[in-house]
Amino acid sequence: xxxxxxxxxxxxxxxxxxxxxxxxxxxxxxxxxxxxxxxxxxxxxxxxxxxxxxxxxxxxxxxxxxxxxxxxxxxxxxxxxxxxxxxxxxxxxxxxxxxxxxxxxxxxxxxxxxxxxxxxxxxxxxxxxxxxxxxxxxxxxxxxxxxxxxxxxxxxxxxxxxxxxxxxxxxxxxxxxxxxxxxxxxxxxxxxxxxxxxxxxxxxxxxxxxxxxxxxxxxxxxxxxxxxxxxxxxxxxxxxxxxxxxxx
Amino acid sequence: xxxxxxxxxxxxxxxxxxxxxxxxxxxxxxxxxxxxxxxxxxxxxxxxxxxxxxxxxxxxxxxxxxxxxxxxxxxxxxxxxxxxxxxxxxxxxxxxxxxxxxxxxxxxxxxxxxxxxxxxxxxxxxxxxxxxxxxxxxxxxxxxxxxxxxxxxxxxxxxxxxxxxxxxxxxxxxxxxxxxxxxxxxxxxxxxxxxxxxxxxxxxxxxxxxxxxxxxxxxxxxxxxxxxxxxxxxxxxxxxxxxxxxxxxxxxxxxxxxxxxxxxxxxxxxxxxxxxxxxxxxxxxxxxxxxxxxxxxxxxxxxxxxxxxxxxxxxxxxxxxxxxxxxxxxxxxxxxxxxxxxxxxxxxxxxxxxxxxxxxxxxxxxxxxxxxx
Lengths: 248, 373
What we know:
The structure holds 2 protein chains of 2 kinds.
Chain A: E1 5-16, E2 19-30, E3 34-39, H1 45-53, E4 60-65, E5 68-69, H2 74-80, E6 81-84, H3 96-106, H4 111-124, H5 140-151, E7 158-162, H6 170-185, E8 189-194, H7 197-202, E9 205-210, E10 213-218, H8 220-226, H9 232-240
Parallel strand pairs in A: 3-8, 3-9, 6-7, 7-8
Antiparallel strand pairs in A: 1-2, 1-4, 4-5, 9-10
Chain B: H1 2-17, H2 19-39, E1 47-53, H3 58-68, E2 73-79, H4 82-90, E3 96-100, H5 104-111, E4 117-120, H6 125-152, H7 175-207, H8 209-214, H9 220-248, H10 258-282, H11 286-302, H12 315-321, H13 325-339, H14 347-367
Parallel strand pairs in B: 1-2, 1-3
Antiparallel strand pairs in B: 3-4
């Protein structure tokens, strides 16, 4: 039986003037999958993700997210996804508890549920007793873990993570991936972009973007066999060397 | 509705936690209201006067005395010839020269008239205009005195009594404060409405939190209302404090109703906040939004009739003031506070402001994009 597809993209393209940021990408993501999106800086990962989240209008091509069309039903999509960008997206002048309450609130969670979720989340992140700390005063790794937990506080079908572990230490990164696996086990589909090749190996499937195109898409094991490399690093370097565009 | 509740709750916490906002919102306006009305006075005093007296008679001395004792002038230079007097102007010692030609007294007595020459340094236009006007007033007054003397006691009056009269049509005394305080209040409310609100949204852009909002199911109008309402409340609070200061510090009690002021302020703020929102949809950084709103509010304030009467502006500038919401509020404030106008008297201004509110807010909402093209 074929698995349910939660994201489909067909020839999805985004042009800015003469510049084609994303060039006819086609792929599917199935429910509960951890789907990695890797590529050099400027390869078009973020632009592709922004189109799927409804933050950027595609130039051409088709795509659906959680069964909704990215052109016409982007407000429907927003109810069913979580999003965490590489830029820090919590309010620094609010406390941990206030951030949770705010984001849970705008996704329409009832007060009772917000209370429940807050307790659960604090426990999961080992942040009990610190709920009244301002986010500004937290170390980056903690903030990113909190941001992820908040991005899935409303139990979305899919969560989009745009370089979520940039600048985070290896231990916290590992913990962060622990949270990702937990979410995946609950049935939340994970769509993640990253620069770290060890993280690419944690994904179920990986697509490698070069110059706006998807040059390779398979499970990490298959890619390593195909490119005769012992690690994803080797696979990525072989593909990325072909790039004409230079990163920013 | 529920979403809006969370947006407002978040916004109020943030405002409450930002020490700069509290300071700028409450302390600065208070200082402005306590200092500006006393300093920003239209009455010109201490005009430096140069005299070129070529007559040296009883009459010429009387005239000089009369001018100096008016309190508006300070005698700074007493030259023998006009070129010397002019030097004093060039050296910035004096602002104004009064030349009394030779045979001044003789001409008055014999010919019944005598010319006087007034030269004004017009670098500071207001000072020049007012100074010239004051001195003319005093000379006219002096003229009157002489005539009266001649009619009453025709021959023997070697020491005529000098009566000091100020030209009071240019000096409505304490009224300046009554005139300025409502205007300054309008300025404050305008600043809070336009720059604070726009800066706040642009800050979310800079922090990146706006992305998180854009990717959520929050509707455009909810987001905008979530920003409008808190600043609308803040501006009304500042207005209230200002009206209290006006009443208890300056003793300005509006002749009209406070409710008239509040109703108008409510509509006015919708227009001004709409403008602030509009600016924020164009600006990418706080610097940009600050500079633009500074520029816009400066133009609005200068063309509002706060400092210079609209009636004395050129026709094209008067046209511009019709597109300036600030000028309507200043007009209404003065009408309600000084003339006691009621809602019916300001219906034209209310309609104009509703127009502005609809225009700015519609433009802002159309221009605010959750999704980039």
